[in-house]
Design goal:
OB fold (Dihydrolipoamide Acetyltransferase, E2P)
Length: 319
Amino acid sequence: MSNQINLSEVSKGEKFELFLLIRKVEFKQNKNNKTYVALELGDKSGSLPANLWDNFSSFVNYLKIGEILFIEGMIEDYQGQNQIKVEKFRLRKDSENISPQDFLPVSLRDAKIMKAEFSERVEKITNTFLLELIKNIFTSERFEKYTKAPAGKAWHHAYIGGLLEHTLEMVKLADTISDLHPDLDRDLLITGVLLHDLGKTIELSYETAFEYNDYGRFLGHIYIGASLVEEEIKKIPNFPEMLRLKIIHLILAHQGKLEHASPVTPKTVEAIALYHIDELSAKVNAYKNAIKSDTGMTKWTKYIHLAETELYKLSKDHN
């Protein structure tokens, strides 16, 4: 891709010309019942809302998530938040060396280092059944997919490599809680950490944008992951039945509550630990990203529905 500046580097009131990825698109009606297009446009550094008011009828079939537009416009303030004022736009040309992957956010952590951390932690598992299970599941092809997947569509660790980063954060938390409570089954808890979001490698598409595919919409990552692990367990001779039940339970219960899409609530100490470890990693990351992406000029973010609150934006340096 051409060496263009990041969207986050454009100041309010500054004009720009940038290729941007369509992340959201919705056709709406204004007060006069005239159709306009509400978009979210972005790059690796972030995204902003934008509206197309006119001259888009011939592009309707191309205005979809994952398409790239060349935008001439500026950043303006709307109700205390930044948005893109589109002055001109066009579709990318085939001759332009641009791919949707150029616009997808990527983990700030080094991928090679994260892969090595994962492999090193796997080798520390002492339960031979669990170690064999993990190694059988993470074939080279599946592990490569696991290391590239985001952990979510938008809320937390929503970037390439996000699932691996999220998992490694949870590994550190799981080892810490196991140090504090030696009676926990450390190997079981670590196995739950490594496998709890395995289904996200199948439910999410991330080639052009982060979207739930048919598998994700019909089945969801909890069912997908539990089914995959169940199939791999069947291939291991004499795998203990109670151990099988505990592992599947960890995956099914990891979102903690029925209203959070877990089909069962946690019923072992390891399962309740996994739930809270998952929540801690996810919410700290999500809240940090929500603060970073808020463009308002006040010290508080706008109301965030998933957090059910506003968040304080000033850093520790502003005590």
